[in-house]
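Q: I'm building a small set of examples for a reading group on sequence design. Run inverse folding on the following structure and report the sequence directly after it, with nothing in between.
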């Protein structure tokens, strides 16, 4: 990480990342409409309700991506601390009644006029920016715990606790995982990181056990049929959707599970509808797109001449791909339900815009890399 290569002249943004992003967005628009048409008509009386929202957010996100793609990524380093302070203030504000909006027992949203947004989504990309900036300036002593690793861990701990209080374990876990990956890439001692994991995992388990509803949700993926109408309902319906798709699926728009059997079919469990309607071929195609995104994003990181750019590219790539892995793991019954959506595909507002803005930053980094 300490060796800097002389940067070459700017060139066009990475075409592969750009095309993969558009492909996932297109799949998302089509599948959100297909998955949500029944529930949209039932609840809102408008079959196109979620489709119109998805198109609007996708358009806003593409605009954000185009803007961030034009901004030299090195300029973001100066904004790391101010952005972190704003993110922390938002995370505190969302917990205060009157500022934060409580939905289904979670206080995760702030309404600004007609537009609600999740501060945790902002915190996610801000933490990637902060970690990249902080670690890039301390690559020579990051292997030391007190002088290198302790301060970013304290910041991570504060952000983690604030998000868990909402509660939102999925986003908190994503931020923690991405931060640890960035620390490792920056040169942190694997012994230090494993020691922290040995302390953190029991602590996380304790937080799950003390709340019975969390424990039921966490353990449901192991034995969903023990409570098929309760904690295991989501997983069972998801597996039925995936299993009924076969090789080529039942056909686009012909899902049966979307008829109010599978909850959150256009958000957390949209991959199950993809598997049902488009089959193994469709589901595998989505997986391949995320794999290609990971491969290309990491290649951009390797080919970037400075430490900040490398870490920022690693963080953005890891953030998106990690969320995809967790979401697909939940849908397939191999991971406990976390509430993490499928990036660029699931119906979403602030998550869509922040993800596309982050990809714009990654595309700008690619313009300065030696990758062709």
């Amino acid at each position: 990480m300490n060796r800097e290569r002389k940067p070459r002249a700017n060139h066009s943004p990475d075409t592969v990342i750009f095309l993969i992003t558009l492909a996932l967005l297109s799949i998302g628009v089509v599948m959100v409409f297909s998955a949500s048409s029944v529930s949209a008509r039932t609840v809102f009386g408008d079959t196109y309700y979620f489709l119109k929202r998805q198109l609007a957010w996708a358009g806003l996100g593409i605009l954000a991506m185009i803007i961030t793609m034009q901004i030299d990524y090195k300029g973001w380093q100066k904004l790391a601390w101010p952005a972190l302070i704003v993110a922390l203030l938002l995370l505190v504000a969302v917990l205060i009644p009157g500022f934060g909006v409580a939905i289904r027992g979670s206080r995760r949203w702030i309404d600004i006029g007609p537009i609600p947004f999740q501060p945790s989504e902002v915190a996610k990309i801000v933490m990637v920016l902060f970690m990249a900036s902080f670690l890039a300036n301390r690559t020579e002593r990051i292997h030391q715990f007190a002088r290198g690793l302790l301060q970013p861990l304290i910041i991570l701990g504060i952000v983690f606790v604030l998000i868990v209080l909402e509660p939102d374990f999925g986003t908190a876990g994503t931020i923690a995982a991405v931060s640890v990956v960035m620390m490792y890439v920056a040169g942190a001692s694997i012994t230090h990181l494993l020691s922290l994991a040995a302390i953190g995992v029991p602590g996380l388990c304790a937080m799950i056990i003390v709340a019975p509803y969390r424990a039921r949700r966490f353990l449901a993926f192991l034995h969903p049929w023990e409570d098929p109408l309760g904690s295991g309902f989501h997983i069972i319906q998801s597996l039925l959707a995936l299993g009924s798709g076969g090789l080529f699926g039942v056909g686009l728009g012909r899902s049966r599970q979307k008829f109010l059997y599978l909850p959150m079919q256009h958000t957390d469990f949209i991959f199950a509808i993809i598997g049902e309607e488009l089959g193994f071929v469709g589901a595998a195609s989505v997986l391949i797109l995320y794999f290609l995104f990971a491969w290309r994003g990491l290649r951009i990181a390797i080919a970037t001449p400075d430490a900040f750019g490398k870490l920022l590219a690693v963080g953005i790539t890891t953030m998106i791909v990690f969320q995809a892995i967790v979401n697909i793991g939940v849908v397939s019954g191999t991971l406990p339900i976390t509430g993490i959506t499928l990036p660029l595909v699931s119906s979403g507002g602030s998550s869509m815009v922040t993800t596309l803005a982050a990809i714009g930053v990654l595309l700008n980094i690619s313009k300065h890399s030696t990758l062709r």
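Residues 1-9 have pLDDT under 50 and may be disordered.
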